[in-house]
Each structure stands twice: as C-alpha cells, then as structure tokens.
UniProtKB/TrEMBL annotation:
<keyword id="KW-0472">Membrane</keyword>
<keyword id="KW-0812">Transmembrane</keyword>
<feature type="transmembrane region" description="Helical">
    <location>
        <begin position="112"/>
        <end position="128"/>
    </location>
</feature>
<dbReference type="GO" id="GO:0000155">
    <property type="term" value="F:phosphorelay sensor kinase activity"/>
</dbReference>
<keyword id="KW-0547">Nucleotide-binding</keyword>
<dbReference type="Pfam" id="PF00512">
    <property type="entry name" value="HisKA"/>
</dbReference>
<keyword id="KW-0067">ATP-binding</keyword>
<keyword id="KW-1133">Transmembrane helix</keyword>
<feature type="domain" description="Histidine kinase">
    <location>
        <begin position="224"/>
        <end position="437"/>
    </location>
</feature>
<dbReference type="InterPro" id="IPR050980">
    <property type="entry name" value="2C_sensor_his_kinase"/>
</dbReference>
<dbReference type="InterPro" id="IPR003661">
    <property type="entry name" value="HisK_dim/P_dom"/>
</dbReference>
<dbReference type="InterPro" id="IPR047770">
    <property type="entry name" value="RegB"/>
</dbReference>
<dbReference type="InterPro" id="IPR003594">
    <property type="entry name" value="HATPase_dom"/>
</dbReference>
<dbReference type="Pfam" id="PF02518">
    <property type="entry name" value="HATPase_c"/>
</dbReference>
<keyword id="KW-0808">Transferase</keyword>
<protein>
    <recommendedName>
        <fullName>histidine kinase</fullName>
        <ecNumber>2.7.13.3</ecNumber>
    </recommendedName>
</protein>
<feature type="transmembrane region" description="Helical">
    <location>
        <begin position="32"/>
        <end position="50"/>
    </location>
</feature>
Amino acid sequence: MDQPARTNLGFGFASTTMRESQRLRLATLVRLRWLAVAGQTATCFLVAFGLGYPLPLGWCLVLIVASAALTMLLWASNSASWRLSLRETTAVLAFDIVQLSGLLYLTGGLENPFVILLIVPAVIASATQPTSTTVALGALAVASTTFLAFFHLPLPWPNGTGLALPGFYLAGLWFAVAVSVAFASIVIHWQASEARALSDALAATELVLQREQHLSALDGLAAAAAHELGTPLSTIALIAKDMGASVPADDPRREDVELLITQSRRCREILKRLASLAADSEEHMARLQLLSLVEDVVAPHRNFGITIHVAGGERDGPEPVTRRNAGVLYGLGNLVENAVDFAESEVLVTVEWSRDEVRITITDDGPGFSPEALTRIGDPYMADRERPQRNAGGGLGLGLFIAKILIERSGAAIAFTNRRDKGRTGAIVKVVWPRETFAISAKEDFSEQSLLVERT
C-alpha cells in the first residue's frame, strides 16, 4: 500500500509548514478581536462607574484603544477573505496575550478572575497553527501568568481596601491557569489534526471514486462517438460510391476516388468494432460473477514475489452475480495489496457464499496487526502494522482507510484480526455482505439482459 511520509497525530509532531486551510481567516480574527475589545471596554466601565471601584481607567483605555487600532489596521490592510501567514498570526496572538496581561497588571494581576482569558490565544493557535507556534504562545501565556503573580497593581475593591488572598491560594490559581493552557491546547490540537486528516482522507476517497467512474464511462463515450460518426461517414461513403460510378477508368482521378471509397469502408469497419466492443463492455461492466471479481482484484498483485492462492470454502447455491462496483474493486484491491506488502511468502484469498451471505477472507503470513493497530484500524493516518525491518512501523493507513470506507459503503461489514494458529502469524481481513445486498436477483438479471438485447 502507498506509504507517504510519516505524519504523527501526537502533540509533539508536525512540520512548521501550513496548508491554506490551516491559515486563520482575517474576517474570523477581526470578529474575535472586536468582541474582545467590546468585552474589555464594557467590563472596565462597569467596574469603574457601575460598581464604583477605584480603577486606573485611563491606562486601561490606552491598552484597549491599542488593540482596537491594531484590529482596524488589519481590517484596512487586507480583504476579509485574506488568510494570515504563520508569522502574522503568531504576532497578533502574542500581542493579544501581552495586551491582556497589561490590563490584568492594572487590575489585580493573578487575583483578577479574568486571568483565565489568557488561555484564549493559545487555544486559538492550537486549533489552527503548527505545534511550534502553539507551544510558544502557551509558554508566553504561562510566563505572563507567572509575572502577574508577583507584579501587579491592587485588585479594584470597595473603598480601595484591596483583597489579600493567601499565597497558597494564588499558587493554586497559577497552577490552574497553566494546566488549562496545556490541557486545552493539547486536546484541541489533537482534535483539529485528526479532523484535517479525516478531511484529507475523505477527499482522497472521492478522487479515487471519480477516477474509477471516469474510466468506466469511457466505453459509453466510445459507443456514443461511434453512433454520432456513423451517419456522416455513411453519407461520405455514398457520395464516394456515386463519384466512382461517374469517373471513367482511365481518368487520373479514378485512383483517388477508389482510395476514398476504401478508406471510408475501413472507417465504417473500425466504428463497427468500436460499437461492438462498447456493447460487450457494457454487458461486462454491468454484471460480474463473484470469482471473476476476485480474480480482477488479485491479478495485478501476482508478480511481486508473493504467491496468492484463491481458495473456496462453503459454497451453498449458485455463484453470486453482482453489479460491477468501482468502489468495491478498489477497496478489495487495497486490502490485497496491503496483505502482499506485509506477507512473507503467500496470501490466501478465501471466497465463500451461502443462501444468506457472501464472504471474502484475505489472510497473509506476515507479522499481523499489533494490538495498538487493531484498536485504531481504519483511522486515516496511522501505522498499519509494526514490522521490525520497516522504518517506524510502515505506512500511514490512508489506503486501508479508503478501502474500509468504500467497502462499507457497498453494504459490507469488515473485520480485522490476527491468526491464532500455534507457531504461525499473519493478519486476517474478513469482508461479509448480506447476499441480497451483494448479488443481483434473478428478476433484475433477466431485466438487464432484456434491455441489452433491445439495445442490440
């Protein structure tokens, strides 16, 4: 299976490169900043005039105006759809931490209950920025909290008496803010990374399906082209025949007329074969026996030094016939490819059917799935299996994820286990369809055959 370069989902991974979708939209950031400016202004005026507490209002308004000025500068310098670069986003969020720290310094420092807002810029970074930026902003938030624990003006309080909080309690507040920054950033970073991975995998799945559908449509286009070209070519052949009848045998143009008749006849034969091939392909594409389906899946993987056996188990009733499904073919192909990649010498594909079910089991003699991999099987980015000679445990599991999605879309259940035979290892992948979901009924088969006969 394809094995792109490793991308860990843990908090400590990630390259510093950013995709366009990760960059923070200016309109989103501006709305958040105006909300912060409005909240800070309302809180200061409420404390100063509503509650009548002593407050250095002038210096607070200077810091709030500075934040508003930066917001207006950002809004005026770019369009609303602009996405900020990594450096721009880091600078703006760092400014927000420093500006809020300044307000907290003027209003009680760590004693101010709004100190918890210092985690907001770090949380925003964790959802949209690389790990390095998130760590840097989180560290800045914790450093600011530490500074505010020792250096600050008195907390606004009635009659200017101030509030003396025990040092042990303040230490607990500092610890709570630090833990909140770390925990919220880690959790949101994990969730955002997994959401992006899932989005990428689903996009890859859709691209695979589109490619298979386009390939399946080529035969139909060939038939349409043959039909459209048939009429003008018949007209050309008729005119060429009339010209041949009117041109004498010793006329120098006779050779050209005969060449035109011969080539038009050859074109008609080519179009006839093309239409016949498209009709045969249409019938072949519409219906596929189970064993033929398995052979189509297995054939591309036979010449890679691994022996692939197709064996039969329980076979009750006639062989199922199904509609050709590009998603099923691609999904099973990925499973077989994965088994070949990890097998030591052979892969066994067992095909079974009964009155109720259709089963395809793929077994290899490789190392099998690790216990950790079995719990996360089908995640879009994970190591498929652990194998000592493979660097870092193999690929990322995108192909396995796509296979699982495509097969489950067809109505099948898929299970991943390991061999339990003594002295033997290997992975087992079992795909099971309800027969009524997989197979074309006799009535449907008769209707489709009748339609093909009418077309021909």
